[in-house]
Amino acid sequence: MRKITVFLGLALLSLATVNAQKDITLEGIWKNYEFYAKSVPGFNFLQDGKHYTRLEDDKILQYDITSGEQVATIFDPATVRGNEDFTGKIDGYEFSADESKIVVRSGTESIYRRSYRANYFIYDREAKTLQTVFTEGKHSYADLNPQGDKVAFVYQNNLYYKDLESGSIVQITQDGQHNQIIYGATDWVYEEEFGFAKAFFWSPNGDRLAYYRFDESEVKEFTMTNYHDEMYPEYVTFKYPKVGEDNAEVDVFIYSTQGGEPVKVDLGSAKEYVPRIKWTASSDELCVYRMNRHQNHLELLLANAKNGQTKLLLEEKNQYYIAESVLDNLTFLKDGKRFIWSSEKDGWHHIYLYNMKGKALRQITKGKWEVSTLYGVDEANGRVYYQAAEKSPMERQVYSIGLDGEDKIIIAGASGWNSAQFSSTYDYYVASFSTANTPTTYTVFDQKGRRLRTIEENKSLKGKQVEYGTQPVEFFSFTTKDKVALNGWMIKPTDFRANRKYPVFMYLYGGPGSQQVTDSWKGSNYWWFQMLAQQGYIVACVDNRGTGGRGEEFKKMTYKQLGHYETIDQIEAARYLGGLPYTDESRIAIFGWSYGGYMSSLCLLKGNEVFKAAIAVAPVTNWKWYDTIYTERYMQTYKENEAGYRDNSPVYFADRLKGDYLLVHGLGDDNVHFQHTAEMANALIAANKQFDTYFYPNRNHGIYGDNARLHLYQKMTDFLEDSLEPEKTVINRAEQSMKSDKKKVSPRLQIAPSQKLSAPLKKDGKYEEQ
C-alpha cells in the first residue's frame, strides 16, 4: 500500500479531540442497556373510555387516563384462595367483552414468533373466584366468548371449549395431530406471513365458533439442530412449505354450542389461501377471505353459518399482488348495512365504504399519499381515525375524517413520526411522537385535542444525547441514473471536517413495503450508529425502489425480480455517497439483517467495484429456499420465474466476491434457515473465495440471549474496523507506535492516503494545523 508520512503531533492532537466527548460502548448498548428508550405499553382501555388497566407486579391495576392515578386493583393474586394450579405469576390477561371475567395467562412457553402455550385461568370479578381452564397440560389461546360464559382453547392440535357455569369441557375436534392436522391454530407459514396464530373466533352472540383446519400432512419437513450440553443434540422438525412445494390444505368450519355437527364452509375449488375470517355484525354470517396462490386475486365471501353456503361480497384483482396491509382493515359497522375496507386499487392505499351487497358507496380518503394504519371507526359520531404519509413519505401524521369523506381533521400533525391509541369511546387518545433525533414522547389528549398530561418524554435519554455528544441525523435525497429520486439519512463523524476523507458505513433493509428512511426514533441501532460516528465513520441509509410510503408503483415495481432494482439503487447510493468531497470512495461497507442481509450480499457481489465490505446477518441467499407465501407473493414460483430467481440470488454470484464478507446466522432460525448461509458458504468455497463467518447455536432469527447481541455487535464492529480502518483506529495505532519506538527523535506514522488525517500541504511543504 502506498503510504505518506504525517507528523505524530497531528495524530495526538486529533486523538485529544476525539476523546473530548464520552465514548458510547457496546456494553452500554447491548449488556447494560444504558440507552434503552422508555416506552409506554399498549393501553387496555375499559368500555367506559376513561379508564385503562395495566399489569404491574403480577397485579391488574386500573388507572384514570386523564390523571394517570391508580383508582382500583382489579386482580391481586395474593387474594386468591383455593386454586393450587395458579402460581401467582401473570404473563398476560384479557377481559371478556362485557368485562365481567378476565382470562389470566401464566407459565407461557413460546413456540415460534407469535405462537405459545401456557396455563390459563378465568377470574370472575363479581364472585372473586379463579377457575382453572384445563388441567391436562399447557394449552393455547384461551378466549372467552362475548358473554363470558364459555372459553375456547387449543390443546395438542384440537379445539375445545369449557362451559364456565357447569365446568364441563367439550372436545370439538378429534383428529388433531402434531405435524399432521391442526385445529384452531395456524401452521408455521400462516403464522409468519399472514401474521396470526390463534385461528378460532366466537360469534357475536357467543353460541358459535368459526375455526380453521390445517391438513399439513403433505407439507415437507425441515429439521433444526439445537445443542444443550447433552450427549446428543435436540432435533426440532416442523412443516415448512418452500417455494413451489405443497401448502397445507385449509378449511373453515362453524361449530354451534347448541348442538349438531360442525358446518364446513364452502370455499370452492379455487382457493389456496384463507388469510382471514371475521364475523359480520350478525352471528348468522361469517366473512371468509379466499385468495389464489399468486395472491393477486382476493375475494370476500359471506358464509351462511347454518349451512356453510357462500356468496361473493367483494372481489379485488391486482396486476402484481394484494398487499398484506389491507387484510386487517375490514370493519363491519354495527348497523349491519355497511363495512369499511382499504385498498390500493387507485395506486395508493386508501379507505373505502361499502354496503353489505358489495357496492362501493364512497372513497373516504383519496390523494397521492398512503394511509398507513386504520385505527378504527367511531360509529357514534360517524368518524374514521387513521395514520397517513400525506405530508411526506418519511413522516406520519394522525387524522380523523367523516364517513362521508368530509371534514378531515389533523389529530397529531407535528413534523416527524406520530401515532396514536384511542380509548374505546374515542373520548381520549395517547399520542406518540418522535423524530430521528428525538426519542418518543407519549402524551394524553382529549377528543377536542386538549393536552391533558405527558406520560413519558424520555428526558434521561435526551440528556445522554448531550452527554455523549451525539451527531444529528441529517436527511438527503439524490436522483439516480434512472431518474428516480431516493431518500436517505446520514450521521457524520464526531468533530466532522469537510476537508477529510471518511469511510462510509451503509445500513439497509430494502424489502417490499418497508422503510428505514423515516423521521422516527431508531432504537438501539441509533446508539451503535452514533458509536461508529464517534470512531470516524459516516453512517448512511437509503431506501431503494420497492420500499413503502410512496405508492403502489414505487413499491411493486420489483415484482418478479426481487433484488434487481434494489441492488442497482444501493450501488448508485454508494457511488453518490462515495462522490461526496468528504468521503473515501475506496472504503464503503454495507450491512443488513434478513432481507437486508440478502441485499448487502447482493450489493457486495454485484457492486464489487464499489463496496469494500459487507455484513450479512441471517440472509436469504436463494429465494427457492424460502417459504411459499412470502416468496411467491413477490416472485411467483421457481418454475414460473426461474430467471428472476437465478438473476437475483447471491449464491449464483459467489465468484464475484472481491471485498471482505462477514456471514452470520443463528442455527435455530426457523424463519430464514441456516441452510441459506451453509449453501452460500459452499458456493464461496467452490469459487475459492475467502470470507468470515459466525454462527449462533440455538438462536433464532433475532439472535439474542446470553450475550448473543453483544457478541454479534462486537464482531461486526471489529470487522468494520479491520476492513475500513476509521480515523480513531488509525489514531490509536499512532499512539501505540509512539509508545513502542521511543528512541526515534521524530517519530512518524505511516498512513494510507485514504486514511489521512491532515489538511492539504502548504506551499512550504508543511501541514496546516487542524
TrEMBL record:
Pfam families: DPPIV_N, Peptidase_S9. Transmembrane segments: none annotated. Residues 527-724 form the Peptidase S9 prolyl oligopeptidase catalytic domain. Residues 730-770 are annotated as: Disordered. Residues 730-744, 761-770 have a biased composition (Basic and acidic residues). InterPro entries: AB_hydrolase_fold, Pept_S9_AS, Peptidase_S9_cat, Peptidase_S9B_N, Serine_Prot_S9B/DPPIV. Residues 1-20 form the signal peptide. SUPFAM superfamilies: alpha/beta-Hydrolases, DPP6 N-terminal domain-like. It comes from the Bacteria. This is S9 family peptidase.
